[in-house]
Each structure stands twice: as structure tokens, then as C-alpha cells.
Amino acid sequence: MKDTIITLLEGALDTLKRQGVLPADLSPTIKVDPTRDKAHGDYATNLALMLAKPAGKKPRELAEALVGALPESDAVSRVEIAGPGFVNFFAATDAAAQVVRQVLDGGDTYGRSLTGQGEKVQVEFVSANPTGPLHVGHGRGAAIGDCICRLLEATGHDVTREFYYNDAGAQISNLALSVQARVKGIDPDDEGWPADGYRGGYIIDVANAYLAGETVHADDRHVTAKGDPDDLDAIRDFAVAYLRREQDLDLRAFGVEFDVYFLESSLYEDGKVEATVEQLIKGGHTYEQDGALWLRTTDFGDDKDRVMRKTDGHYTYFLPDVAYHLDKWQRGFTTVINEQGADHHSTVTRVRAGLQALETGIPPGWPDYVLHQMVMVTRSGVEVKLSKRAGSYVTVRDLIDEVGRDATRFFLAARRADSQLTFDIDLARSQSNDNPVYYVQYAHARVCSVARKAEADGKPFDHALAMASLALLAEDQEKALMNRLARYPEVVEHAAASREPQQIAQYLLDLAAEFHTCYNAVKVMVEDDALRNARLALGLATRQVLRNGLDLMGVGAPEEM
């Protein structure tokens, strides 16, 4: 309907240009939005207000000219001018109802498009150090990142999901020392415990498995424990593999999979870090000072220059990040999205500056970033901080065990990434309309219940009769529901373009609200066969869109609740 109205307005503009009312070279962007108050129609445009000045007319006068120049259309029942010059469109009932046919014909593909034209997009998310179970912050990154991937795929992009393993550096050394201490019977409170050791109960599990000589099958490696308490390298290899496997299990329980697992250590082994340093030196963007190697990141928008190689010869963390992103570019990803925690904010400018300094044709502002804020978990209004498994933080597995995967995913992705999130365990467990995921899923289950009742009453859905009777869907609540269904493809496209999965969550809540309102106001199982089947079709179309939207959130669509 929206596209139809835009086409009608384009026709009116062409007419007004030919009449000399508007300049011939005028090419405005026509904006048509759903109205908030249905008394003002179904859709409205402010086009007359936008064009009044170039036309040399008062907005309302130009609005009258626009309305007068609109081509005839059976899709619009009437057009009104409101306020200073808004033009309101009332959709004809039979035209508005055609969305029901479109949804049922489209099925699982309704709302999907090819706007991405197969563009290769890489989304990096989670990328947790293999030093412990995934915490709730990783969970938020997993939910948002996976939803972004689903949105991009739904809009025709060729998506690669990537997990970057920081399997090199001080944290991995601390992990190995922690496991070794446990292997030797040293506790965190003992004098010999490593200063920066990991204290979670999972370290004991790793140590016991190492002593038992277990074999770990991780994503890209199979490691058998040597059981030697003094072989720190063997302990390190086993601990990393063990915890990578644990994280894989966390992600599998969360319904998240990756196409590529990229190891930080491979950047050193393949010489890519050294090659990146040499290229930066060759480009003249580095200098030596106080025994360290610096990069002039201020040449590319940073507030101060950054150390690349410290006086001890080790590289700072952002240098391998630059090498890693150069590798992404060389793999042909012109669009890269990094979904990371807000604590990575300071790295954005540095990585982009380093990439510009390489002078390899990478555009400014590449890659894209989506940064999520922290999550606070509460129960009975009190913050939950500890986990038996991790020792010092709430894990993703804790939440899944408490409230289930669907609620965990929906809650973590249903708010803007840049807003702090309070995860209320009591609310997520509740079966009430206050629980957003329950409210949406219940709408889906409610339609299924109506369809089952129709079957049980010997009045199964008649598709042909329903399609011939859609014009009977004339109640205000039915029209509001149909208008909401019609907006779904646009919401998907906009959410994908802006990398904002919470738009889908909000749409689903709005759609569920429209459905529940319609269900309570309009009886479906009436005696009139044509009207009953038309209303069943509207319910089935709503069920389909709810299912499609929940799938984009990685959330199930139950048939019974």
C-alpha cells in the first residue's frame, strides 16, 4: 500500500511539473508513513510542506494541488488534507486486505528481499578469550550479532559469521598458570597461586581432565592431555582446547553457529603481524621514541599517537587487530561488521587509523562497529553477580538454564545495543503479558489454537473461499492488523540496514498487540462461511509474520503454551 501511494504521488508530481506548478528539475524524496491515529487515515505524507518553498506556494495550497493531480486508484478510498498541509490516505478495504494474500502466498519468504544483491558481508561477534565460560555480556553480543546476520541474510546478503580467538598473550599465560597450580594442588588462597590467576570452578575441571589424560575435540583441534604437571606448554594447549570446546557448547545451547574460527596466534605464525609492521614503517607513518615503535595515528583522526611495539619487543593489542582486519579486507569483504562490547570503543579509532596508514585502498570508516553496553542480571530486584561455574560472573549457560534459550535471546537482543540492559530473571520466567517474549509467542500459539478449533468443529480453513472474501475484513481492528502486517518487509529492510535487531523485537510486540486487540474485539468462529474464512486467513497471516519475525530473532514459535 505504501508503495502504491508513493507511485500515485510520483504521478501527481509529474503532472504538476508539466503544468508549471513545480520546477521541472525538482526530484524530492517522497516520504510516506503510517498514521498513528486511524481517524487520520492509514498513511500520510508531508510532501506539500517540503515542496511549498520551491513551488512558491503555501503548504496547504500545494497540498490541494497534489491531491487534485493524483491519478485514479482503486487502492485508495479517499484522500484528505489535514493541518498545515499533510495529505492523509485511506486505503480501500479490499486493497488493504490483499496483504493477507501476499503473506500466505509468500509464507516463510514474506519480508525477505534481494536488496543486498549477494554482497559479501563478514560479521565478527562474541570473539571471547578462551579463558573461561561465556559471560552474559558475551551472550548479548552473541544474540545481537546472530540477529544481525539473520537480518542481512533475509535481505539478500552473503553473510560469513566469524569468531576471533585471542589465543595468544598474557591472558592465555595466566590461564595456563592457573590450571598448572590446580594440577599441583595449589588453591587460590595459597601462597603459590598466580597473581592474576583465574579462580572459577571450571579451572578445577580443566585440571582434573588434564591429569586424567582426557582427549578434547574442539572446533579445529584434538588435544590429548599429557598429565605432566611441569609441562606448561602442554597444559596451555590442553586448557585452550578444553575451554574452546566449552564455549562451543555454550554457543550451541544458544543456537549460534560460526562459519570461521580465526586464531590470533595464526597471525604471528603466518608472519602477518610482522608484514603489517613492515608495511606501516615503509609508508612512513611510524617513528621510534623511548625504545618503542609508534604509529602516527593522529594523522588519521586519533587524539594521540599509539605505541605499536613496546620496549620489551612485544606488540600492543591493537597491532594484531590491524593485521587481522587487513586479512579480512584481503579475503574480499568490502563490508565488515564488528559486534563487540562497549569496552572496545577506544579501539575503533586506532584500528581504522592503522588500516588507513597501510594505504591499501581500504576506505575511511571501515570496518563498521556495533558496540553493546553491559548487562545487569537481577532476581527479586537484587543484582545477581556470582556463578558456581565461573566464580565471579553470570554465564550464558546460567541464564539459559534459568529461563530458557528463547527468553534469553529475545531479552538480550530486544533493546538498542548502545543502551544498558537489566535482565530480570523473574520477568523472563513469568507467563504474563508483561513478559515480552511470552506475549509475542502467545499470539502465535493463540492463532494455532483457533485453527485447531476450526478443524475440530468440522469447519477447516478454506483457502479459496478466504481469498475470495478478503473484502469482508472491514472492522477497524482488522484494518489496523492488516496495516501492521504490510509494514513488516520495510521493518526488516530498515533493521538490516541500520544493524538494529531491536526493531524486529518492537515490531513483533506491536503486531502481537494488534492481534490480541483484534482477537478480543472480533469473533472469528462465526456462522457465515465467507467471513469466518476471511478472518481465519487474517489470523494465519499474522501467525506467519510472527513466525518469520521470531526466526530473525533466533526464537521459536510454539504452537501451544
Tell me what the structure shows:
- By secondary structure, this protein is α/β, with parallel strands linked by helices.
- The chain contains 20 helices and 17 strands.
- Strands 9-6-5-13-14 form a five-stranded parallel β-sheet.
- Helix 1 crosses helix 3, helix 2 crosses helix 3 and helix 6 packs across helix 8 (232-253).
- The radius of gyration is 29 Å and the shape is globular.
- The mean pLDDT is 94.
Structural class: alpha/beta
Strand content: 5-15%
Within the largest sheet, what's the order of strands? 9-6-5-13-14
Low-pLDDT runs: none
The tally of helices reads 20
Which sheet architecture does the biggest sheet show?
5 strands, parallel
Distance between the termini: 34 Å
Question: Radius of gyration in whole Å, from Cα?
Answer: 29 Å
Q: What gross morphology would you assign?
A: globular
User: Average pLDDT across residues?
Assistant: 94
* Counted beta strands: 17
What does this entry show, briefly?
This protein has 561 residues and is of the alpha/beta class.
List the helices and strands and how they pair.
Layout: H1 2-18, E1 32-34, E2 43-45, H2 47-55, H3 59-69, E3 76-82, E4 86-91, H4 93-106, E5 120-125, H5 136-154, E6 158-165, H6 170-183, H7 202-211, E7 215-217, E8 222-224, H8 232-253, E9 260-263, H9 264-269, H10 272-282, E10 286-289, E11 292-295, E12 306-309, H11 318-330, E13 335-341, H12 345-358, E14 368-372, E15 375-379, E16 382-383, H13 396-403, H14 405-413, E17 421-424, H15 425-429, H16 436-456, H17 463-468, H18 476-498, H19 502-521, H20 529-552
Parallel strand pairs: 5-6, 5-13, 6-9, 13-14, 15-17
Antiparallel strand pairs: 1-2, 2-4, 3-4, 7-8, 10-11, 11-12, 15-16
Helix pairs in contact: 1-3, 2-3, 4-18, 4-20, 5-14, 5-18, 6-7, 6-8, 10-11, 11-12, 13-14, 16-19, 16-20, 18-19, 18-20, 19-20
